[in-house]
Amino acid sequence: MSGDVREAKRKLPLPALIHILGLGEHAKKSARCPFHDDKRNSFSVWRNGAGAWFFKCHAGCGEGDEITFLELHERIPNNEATKLFLEISNANDATPSASKRRSTSALDWRACAEAFTEKDVEQLSKWRGYSVEFCSWLKQSRFVGLYDNCIAFPVHDPAGNVVAAHYRLRAGSWRYYPQGAKVRPLVIGELIADDPGERDGIVITRGASNGALVAGLIPEGSTVYVWTQNDDAGENWQKDVCANTKGTVKRARIPALHKDLNVWTRAGATPGDLLHAMQSAEVVSEAEKSWMDALNESVVTSNELRDLELVPRKKLLGDWFCEGDLGFIFAFRGVGKTWLALAIAQALSTGSKLGDWPGHAPVKVLYIDGEMPPDLMRSRCKGLEAGNDNLQFLNHEILFERSGNVLNITNGEIQQAITEKCIASGVKVLFLDNLSTLASGMREQLATRFAQTQDRGCDRSSRRALWRNARHVQA
Questions:
Q1: Are residues 135 and 225 both part of a single domain?
Q2: CA-CA 20 to 30 A from 325: which of 130, 188, 198, 383?
Q3: Rounded distance between C-alpha atoms, residue 431 and residue 371, angstroms
Q4: pLDDT tens digit string along 244-255?
Q5: Exposure letters 150-161 (e unless 16+ CB within 10 A, then b)
Q6: H-helix or E-strand spanning residue 296
Q7: CB 406 within 8 A of CB 414
Q8: What is the pTM for the complete model shown?
Q9: What is the residue-wise DSSP string for 377-389?
Q10: 173 and 192 within one domain
């Protein structure tokens, strides 16, 4: 390790670096990984006995020191990450320009804005593909400036005061001054209603990991157009925006050829192209109605109910089992509940007859088995001639052997995963066999809470049929 790198690590240890990058919530022993869509805390930052700092993603993203973190964060090779780390920490003895303020001083944003010249306006226009008029407006409105001769944008507190600068290093990465400044979106325009009730504004979250920061910024009931970049990070950003917006969110599609909106505009996208994208934007999240609005829209009189045009539910088996049904097979132990459930599953998956109950059309069935060994379940299926691609099984032992996971439907994450699996694979009927074994830690009478699982992102019609083989009589 060179002396410069050693000094840089002394001045800017890993936790401080992570905070500067706007990822402070990840700088601890147990946190969500900043490099993938982490559903559990798989990321750790710690200090060894020699005083050196390290990180590790236990899901496999990588591990290492400050420079390795920059490699992953910036997606650059080691030599560039080393150079960038030295630049960030000033361990290369670079002398700051007179316009730069040390962290012990308050930021003078007025001076930063006034340092932005007409030549800088032209350079910004060429670099980002913006019109000169727009860049001039940014300068006049003090939405752009220079910090240490680097292009910078203001960070406002809730009262509208500029408290930090978000600036771009020459190597291409972005930093905050003062160090440790709280990341806040850049808001251009007034996100309040004018006299006709119109709202107008632009929110820039300063990174794909900051979608949740829109919480509280966008007025309830607004329509929001998101320009989601075409990668996994963009998809996660969109989910965060939707989860933190009490309004309708529409996605304006950027052509797949371009990574993000700015790449598209630099490639020649016109205002007409952008307007067309907004006009054809798809709804990705609906505004949540208040309970009073929902009741006012949903209560009907008996006369209205009589005249409603209702879509008939499709019959699946006989005249009694239709889409949207919820049922229980309820009996003493050992009388054949699983046999009956398998027979129904076979009839549904093949569209065949079961006793006096005709099947109307083949449908996909997922049978979740929390009790039987897989070899016994296979024997029963063979006896019923239940082998077909429409009938799928999730057996608790196979799941554990292949993944190490334990099946427990009281877990919300597992409920969500099962729901998404059914939607993605077109499953129309779900069997749970049985609640006593699948709902660990919950009394059988309470296990029916699984029905409360909600997935606002899916079409209700995609999950209309649900059958449960659930309960034992306690004798």
A1: no
A2: 383
A3: 13
A4: 888 899 999 999
A5: bbbbbbeeeeee
A6: helix 291-298
A7: no
A8: 0.46
A9: HHHHHHHHT---T
A10: no
d(CA 190, CA 28): 37
Q: What are the residues whose beta carbons fall under 8 Å from the beta carbon of 214, sequence distance 6 or more? A: 185, 203, 205, 240, 241, 244, 245
Closest CA to 465 of 394, 365, 330: 365
**Beta strand 391-395 pairing with 364-369:** parallel
- Which of 122, 149, 177 represents a domain boundary (last residue)? 177
Of 167-176, 186-195, 299-308, 427-436, the poorest mean pLDDT is in 186-195
User: And the tokens for 12?
Assistant: 């800017």
| SS3 label, residue 475 | coil
Reported as a single tens digit per residue, the pLDDT across 317-350 is: 999 999 989 989 988 888 899 999 999 999 999 9
DSSP 36: T
| 170 contacts 147 by C-beta, under 8 angstroms | no
Please report where in the chains the tokens 């020191």 appear, as a residue: 65
232 lies in the same domain as 151: no
**What is the DSSP annotation of 250-264?**
EEPPPPTTSSSHHHH
CA distance 296 to 91: 65
Burial label, 211 (beta-carbon count in 10 A; 0-12, 13-18, 19+): buried
Indicate if 388 and 463 belong to the same structural domain: yes
User: Is-contact 389 381, C-beta < 8 A?
Assistant: no
Write the pLDDT tens digit of every residue in 143-179: 999 998 999 999 988 777 888 999 988 777 788 888 7
Q: Domain boundary residue among 89, 121, 151?
A: 89
What is the C-alpha separation between 343 and 98, in angstroms, rounded? 81
**What is the DSSP code string of 43-73?**
EEEEE-TTS-EEEEETTTTEEESHHHHHHHH
* CA 271 – CA 277 distance, rounded (Å): 10
More confident position, 443 or 460? 443
Q: Which residues contact 345 (CB under 8 A, 6 or more apart)?
A: 365, 367, 386, 391, 429, 431
Single-letter amino acid code for the residue at 224: V
CA 146 vs CA 112, 176, 388, 422: distances in Å: 5, 13, 67, 53
Do 256 and 375 reside in the same domain of the chain? no
Length of the chain: 475
The terminus-to-terminus CA distance of the chain in angstroms comes to 72
For residues 200 and 274, state if they share a domain: yes
Give the other-Cβ count within 10 Å of 393's Cβ. Answer: 19
Are residues 365 and 392 in contact, defined by beta-carbon separation less than 8 angstroms? yes
Is 95 within the bounds of a domain?
no
For residue 305, give both structure tokens: 């109910």
- For residue 125, the enclosing domain spans 109-177
Total Cβ atoms within 10 A of residue 217: 16
Residue 343 lies in a domain: yes
